[in-house]
Amino acid sequence: MGSTTSSEGGRTFSRRWVLGAGATTLLTTGVTACGSGGGSGSGGDTLTALVYGDDAVKVQEKAVARFNGSAAAKSAKGTVKLQKVPGTEYPAKLRTAMGSPNAPDVLFNWGGGSIKAYREADQLVDLTDTIKGDPVLKDGFLPSVLAAGGLDGRNYGIPMRGMQPVILFYNKSVFTEHKLQPPTTWDQLLDINAKLKKAGITPFALGGSDIWPELMWLEYLVDRIGGPEVFERIKNGDASGWGDPAVLKAAQYVRDLIDDGAFGKGFSSVSYVNGGAPAVFAQGKAAMHLMGSWEYSTQLGKFPEFAKNNLGWAAFPEIEGGSGDVRNVVGNPTNYWSVNARTRNKDAAIAFLKDCASEAYAKDLVANGDIPTTSNAAGLLDAAPNPEFARFQYEMVEQAPAFTLSWDQAVDPSVQTPMLTEINKLFVGQSTPSRFVSALQGLR
């Protein structure tokens, strides 16, 4: 869910899918002249970094130029050539490249399920010990984000783009008119829902026709009820994790919300992508919206006055009796650089990755409208388009004991579509919570 560009925001294909499976449809390029095979690459001392070629790639272009002219590159006896692959077909292009003799030395990815097959084929460098032994890498990034890109407790990636947590947005004018405060507990949320419905206002906007906005509810509920360990099992390939009591309880909470009218009657025909859900929210027809941090730029582009004056934000509330920490976050931690196990110059690859922890790199991200995941970013956020919102996001992630990657990006790609199908069936009433759990347990 999410990425780095576009006033359309969200998963309207330039944000949501950059950390998903693609982004804006651009011309695609072939993947040739990559480095690890040592064949037709661009020279024995030049490594290839394969990157998703959207608007945000200018940050990586600056990083390559900075590294190639640095003492670190000279010491490691290597330089980097950036190979951009724009378009929705990046994952397929990456798979093709990784199976070729000229595979990239460094590769852009989404962590989690997006790299599972490469890890299982021993195609990635396990960076865990390298990170632990290098102060720049160990201390350079927020721990929850660094951990979120790994598998089975091991690190295979270095954060290289901005964070995108899922946030509970609310309409400040509606809340003020009805003397409400953002909920900090689930009981408070239910009480607010009742008051809003009595006033003829739908509590939550939801772009149900896109399905992925529904996913955010289950992600947070499972975390708050059972803690991040529940989905961590699932992410690492243990399908029995879907049978955890927290998953069933979360599904029951969702059905209770739907049956109680928390999303209105027609949410399954409302889209986020075409601007329907943001409009319902901005126009005061719905009081709240659970959405990725790109909601701010979406509203700024579509309803600028609302974004500037009446858009509020808060953390997802605590579930009384749940074992998940209220500070935990779900969403898109960031994108990652990983290193091909066949690279001919691991030292140069690692040296290049270390630039992602630099202040210069973080400044470039902020200038691009992103919130860096580096530990040095807090002092740079005054230069962000909305410093208050930038600081909220950064502190939210900085303080999070765990940052769970969006389920549809964390699971194996073969599970992604059937999982979303089952989630949609739960939301539209074609499945019960117990059938939902049974169906997910059957996914392999």
Automatic annotation (TrEMBL):
Segments passing through the bilayer: none
Highest taxon above the source species: Bacteria
Stated name of the protein: Sugar-binding protein
Organism: Streptomyces cadmiisoli
